[in-house]
Write a structure and sequence with these properties.
The structure is a single chain. Strand 1 (about 10-15), helix 1 and strand 2 (about 40-45) form a beta-alpha-beta unit. Helices cover about 40% and strands about 15% of the residues. By secondary structure, it is an alpha/beta fold. Strands 1, 2, 3, 4, 5, 6, 7 and 8 form an 8-stranded mixed β-sheet that branches. The chain is globular, with a radius of gyration of 17 Å.
């Protein structure tokens, strides 16, 4: 687990992920590639970890293929994945079979490193509940374990076993890691959400998931119980920073009913297009900084 070195930076990027809603963030970051935008620090959570990695690699369009096309495959998600892997969403297929060096659509890890941008990927230790921040430099062509760890959606995925530990979605412990970005030296931060700014999580929706996790992972269950309050508090903080000019919060005005695991190609592509259009706000924010 790496620690990003302290030093003078200007603008950071946070992509909070959100399952297949991450297509919105993919659109935002593809717009950044087209606009020639370079951030001084990046941090990705859950599906946002894959988004920022492909962004640093300059692989425009790669993430959209995963959300819009590969997600329809039984091996990616659904009963086929459940039978094969024990998880409804199979991170080994997504970030192994498809994404590794010999995969169908590999992440260009060499290009990620050559970008030279400090970048962290957030996961949650399923046993302790602690937020874990992996340096993107820990990725290799044959091991995208940090992305798998960050993207293991609670209940939909079994906790991901890696390096002798179990990990789950980084959104449980640090869903909008603004304090991490500011602590890394960022003066301003672009925050990419995949729900409208007005959205607030309801605690009730996480209670069933908490009950399912409680027996084997009690600390994870506690985080699920607190998920709504944690997310809502961090979102409120982001909006305070936006009003003061420190943050730019890029968020869809409507997600058209898209849930974390909604496999509707038309909606996914529309959300990507919305993100691409909304990403136009980033260049002026960068110039002001």
């Amino acid at each position: 687990m790496g620690t990003v070195a302290q030093g003078p930076r200007k603008v950071g990027l946070i992509d909070v992920g959100g399952g297949l809603r991450g297509a919105y963030g993919a659109g935002v970051l593809d717009r950044c590639i087209d606009d020639g935008i370079r951030f001084d620090y990046c941090i990705g959570v859950s599906a946002g970890s894959a988004n920022v990695a492909a962004f640093l690699a300059g692989q425009k369009g790669r993430n959209l293929r995963f959300y819009a096309d590969y997600s329809a495959r039984p091996a990616f998600m659904g009963l086929g994945a459940l039978r094969a892997s024990g998880s409804f969403l199979d991170v080994e297929y997504v970030y192994g079979t498809l994404s590794q060096e010999d995969g169908e659509d590999p992440l260009d890890v060499a290009a990620v490193r050559e970008a030279g941008v400090p970048c962290e990927l957030v996961a949650t230790d399923a046993r302790t509940g602690a937020a874990c921040y992996f340096d993107v430099a820990e990725l290799s062509a044959g091991d995208l374990g940090a992305i798998k760890a960050s993207s293991s959606v609670p209940v939909a995925c079994k906790p991901y076993r890696w390096r002798g530990r179990e990990f789950c979605d980084g959104g449980l412990s640090d869903p909008i890691p603004l304090r991490r970005a500011l602590g890394a030296g960022c003066e301003r931060v672009v925050v990419v959400l995949t729900r409208p700014k007005a959205f607030r999580r309801k605690a009730l929706r996480d209670k069933a998931a908490a009950r399912l996790a409680a027996r084997e992972h009690p600390r994870m269950a506690e985080l699920l119980e607190l998920r709504a309050s944690t997310y809502n508090a961090q979102l409120d903080y982001a909006l305070v920073l936006e009003r003061s000019g420190v943050a730019l919060v890029v968020a869809p005005d409507d997600i058209e009913g898209m849930g974390t695991l909604t496999r509707d190609r038309n909606k996914i592509v529309a959300l990507y297009a919305k993100g691409y259009a909304d990403g136009a706000a980033i260049a002026p924010f960068m110039r002001r900084s």
